[in-house]
Known about the structure:
By secondary structure, the protein is mainly beta. The chain has a domain at 19-64. Helix content is 10%, strand content 31%. The protein has one helix at residues 5-11, and strands at residues 20-28, 36-38, 56-64. A hairpin with a 7-residue loop joins strand 1 and strand 2 (36-38). The protein is elongated, with a radius of gyration of 17 Å. Bound molecules: zinc ion (ZN). Zinc ion (ZN) binds at residues 28, 30, 33, 35, 49, 51-52, 54.
Amino acid sequence: MMKGDNIMSFSRGPKEPIPEVDTNVWACTGDECQGWMRESYSFEEVPKCPLCESEMQQEVRVLPELK
Ligand SMILES: [Zn+2]
């Protein structure tokens, strides 16, 4: 057991972990770009990347659930 691990988990973060769920997102198709957004945050049918304006494609990621 590592000394310090307990303190970290005790003093950090919410008491109840946020559940992670499969989430539809738009991911940037740019080679170097990490841009993505939640589908529920996009207002266009096929949004463009806010960072580099490339096309985006739908994929599913596991993300913390939004309440
Ligand atoms: Zn991009």
